[in-house]
Design goal:
Blueprint: E1 3-9, H1 13-23, E2 31-37, E3 42-48, H2 51-57, E4 68-74, E5 89-90, E6 96-101, H3 107-116, H4 127-137, H5 142-152, E7 157-163, E8 170-175, E9 180-184, E10 187-191, E11 203-206, E12 211-215, E13 220-223, E14 229-230, E15 235-236, H6 252-258, H7 260-268, E16 272-273, E17 276-277, H8 286-290, E18 294-299, H9 301-318, E19 322-326, H10 327-330, E20 341-347, H11 353-364, E21 369-373, H12 379-383, E22 386-389, H13 402-421, H14 427-449, H15 451-460, E23 466-471, H16 474-490, E24 493-498, E25 515-520, H17 526-538, E26 542-548, E27 560-564, H18 572-591
Parallel strand pairs: 18-19, 18-20, 20-21, 21-22, 23-24, 23-25, 25-26, 26-27
Antiparallel strand pairs: 1-4, 1-10, 2-3, 2-4, 5-6, 6-7, 7-8, 8-12, 9-10, 9-11, 11-15, 12-13, 13-14, 16-17
Helix pairs in contact: 3-4, 4-5, 7-13, 7-14, 9-13, 9-16, 13-14, 14-18, 15-18, 16-18
The protein binds 6-O-phosphono-alpha-D-glucopyranose.
The site of 6-O-phosphono-alpha-D-glucopyranose has 16 residues, from helix 9.
């Protein structure tokens, strides 16, 4: 959600910025712009639409010479996507230039104050207020002025700022929105995320909350909000830049789906020691695990769906009551957290604003938070008391696949570990569970290799208007994610229902030919599901079933069947989701949608 890139150094800034912004496209945006200092003044170019429009407009950056610049991809919040509202924003005499990710919540009173002082505004954005406020307080000392402004701004921000009278510096600051800075022999960089700078450097610094950075061509200085200079340790990025490239696949989503066997292995194996589950990063002794009375899982989007699965698995195996909350609800509903409660926040990006706020809410009440996070060094990873990383690597496609699969594994590991410590499963069952966990990567691979079958089926449903996903128990959790995958990338209306709810309203929506995807992997609920499928089929639905190998008689209630290999009933989600991901993917491809960057969506939702 909005991308920032800035450069100061020996290279031409514009091509570096364009290149970096391209690596951040996954964040979602609807316009782009950049500002480059040409030795005398700051030139700004903006363009609505894809980044390539800005690239063409500036001939790949050639028309904007200079070695100092900042750029931005905007995901509109305040004001429609157009050239005026796009970033960078400037003060009236164009000597202060700002790019911003986040929302300045008190921008209206600040704007009114500036209007009274005679300032004019050209855009509808909150960001222009920051540029004008910097102008209002500017005393020739950029750092002092920035700090003064930051103390007056409420909300969230990652900022890149240039002052025309200090052409040898760029300033960066963050609160609530992600920002990193990097350094190479050629210069210094700011960016919303690591892939934007990886081509140039592996040495990055994660900017902490309410930190300000002053970048020069060959040096970076970090400051607190009290203007105290601080020393920071760099992080060396170990993963390969290729991990953020398509590697021959048509789309990032396809590549990432294919990485799932590896992702599952990478998340699983470091926690298996001598055939026992050891989760060192949990920071809990067996006694402390036994004291857990209740688990609260908070998350958004697919991470929430992973949490819903986690509830069934943790409750089923470890017999601990679990409440799963959408983070946006948890943070405002004055949740009841009682002694013995454990809070788990699940997030791929580690930057989701609501999940971060939910963590703060829990911590404020004195509860420790375990983060299940993919992005190393992200805000949630830093703010959670303990972090269990999902080792999925960079995920670029907006629709998550491999990170979701890794989240499931992390939750299974916790459930089996807790079950073992609490002795709610015996040693024999523990070993069987471990065996089945270790089988998952090969089984996922098998399902991926049968992708043609799904592709063939998906081609028939490209014109579908509505699709319903139904399941019971864990299969309901799978349905939620299957439905989201389809709707978010194909724009086909789809809904997931607990199959038992069908008769309470939804069944009236079934018409001749309506596609119903039924997931039935839970043997004890199998017959109930068959009845639900028959009910919709008699009303004209076309039923696609996803079920366990061996359930041959499912054919009497389904028109098309996809079988998943045998696994423990608690782990079926990891397998059943694969055909549903592929189904959403092939429908999206067939419809000619922008698979990796669906309209209106952002990879990392850093505002409310
Ligand atoms: C966005 C993404 C989803 C993701 C959700 C939560 O909506 O498009 O794929 O599930 O945010 O993000 P997180 O990074 O916290 O997992």
């Amino acid at each position: 959600m909005c991308g920032i890139v800035g450069f100061i150094g020996k290279r031409q800034a514009a091509p570096v910025i364009l290149d970096g912004l391209a690596k951040l496209e996954y964040r979602g945006y609807d316009s782009a712009g950049m500002a480059v200092f040409d030795g005398e003044k700051v030139n700004v170019t903006k363009a609505v639409g894809r980044l390539k429009v800005l690239e063409e407009l500036t001939h790949g950056g050639e028309t904007m010479p200079g070695t100092v610049g900042i750029g931005h991809t905007r995901w509109a919040t305040h004001g429609v996507p157009n050239d005026v509202n796009s970033h960078p924003h400037c003060n009236r005499d164009k000597t202060i230039t700002v790019v911003h990710n986040g929302i300045i919540e008190n921008y209206i009173p600040l704007k009114n104050k500036l209007l009274k002082k005679g300032y004019d505004f050209v855009s509808e954005t909150d960001t222009e207020v920051a540029a004008q406020l910097l102008d209002y307080y500017y005393n020739g000392n950029p750092l002092e002025t920035i700090l003064k402004v930051l103390h007056r701004i409420e909300g969230s921000y990652a900022l890149g700022i240039m002052f025309a009278d200090h052409p040898g510096e760029i300033f960066a600051a963050r609160k609530g929105s992600p920002l990193i800075v990097g350094q190479s022999a050629d210069g210094c960089f700011i960016a919303s995320d690591v892939p934007a700078v990886l081509r140039y450097t592996r040495t990055v610094y994660f900017v902490a909350e309410q930190e300000v950075v002053r970048l020069e061509a060959d040096h970076m200085h970090f400051y607190t909000m009290d203007e105290e200079e601080i020393e920071k340790e760099p992080t060396t990025i170990e993963w390969d830049a290729d991990a953020a490239e398509k590697a021959g696949y048509e789309h990032f989503m396809l590549k990432e789906m294919y990485e799932q066997p590896k992702t599952v292995t990478d998340t699983l194996l470091p926690r298996l020691k001598k055939d026992r589950i050891e989760i060192e990063e949990l920071g809990m002794s067996d006694d402390e695990i036994r004291e857990v009375r209740k688990i609260h899982i908070v998350a958004c989007g697919s991470a929430y769906h992973a949490g819903v699965t986690g509830k069934y698995v943790l409750e089923g195996l470890a017999r601990i009551p679990v409440e799963v909350d959408l983070a946006s609800e948890f943070r405002y509903r004055n949740p009841i957290l009682e002694e013995g409660a454990m809070v788990i926040a699940v997030s791929q990006s580690g930057e989701t604003a609501d999940t971060l706020a939910a963590i703060r809410e829990a911590k404020q009440r004195g509860f420790a938070v375990l983060g299940i996070v993919n992005v190393v060094g992200s805000s949630i990873a830093r703010e959670a008391d303990h972090v269990m990383y999902t080792w999925a690597g960079p995920e670029i496609a907006v629709a998550t696949t491999k990170a979701y699969s890794a989240q499931l594994i992390a939750l299974y590991l916790l459930a089996v570990k807790f079950a073992c410590v609490k002795k709610t499963v015996d040693e024999r069952m523990y070993r069987l569970l471990l065996r089945d966990l270790k089988r998952l990567p090969d089984q996922i691979e098998l399902l991926l290799n049968n992708k043609e079958k799904i592709q063939h089926f998906a081609n028939r449903y490209i014109g579908a208007r509505d699709v319903f996903f139904i399941g019971r128990g864990i299969d309901y959790a799978i349905s939620l994610e299957g439905s989201l995958k389809l709707k978010e990338i194909s724009y086909i209306h789809s809904e997931a229902y607990a199959a038992g709810e069908l008769k309470h309203g939804t069944i009236s929506l079934i018409e001749e030919g309506t596609l119903v995807a039924a997931v039935l992997t839970q043997e004890k609920l199998y017959k109930k599901m068959i009845s639900n499928m028959v009910e919709v089929r008699t009303r004209g639905a076309f039923v696609l079933a996803v079920t366990n190998e061996g359930n041959g008689d499912v054919k009497r209630a389904a028109d098309y069947v996809i079988y998943i290999p045998e696994t423990n009933q608690y782990f079926t989600n990891s397998l059943a989701i694969i055909p549903l991901q592929l189904f959403g993917y092939y429908i999206s491809v067939g419809k000619g949608c922008d698979v990796d960057k669906p309209r209106n969506l952002a990879k990392s939702v850093t505002v409310e």
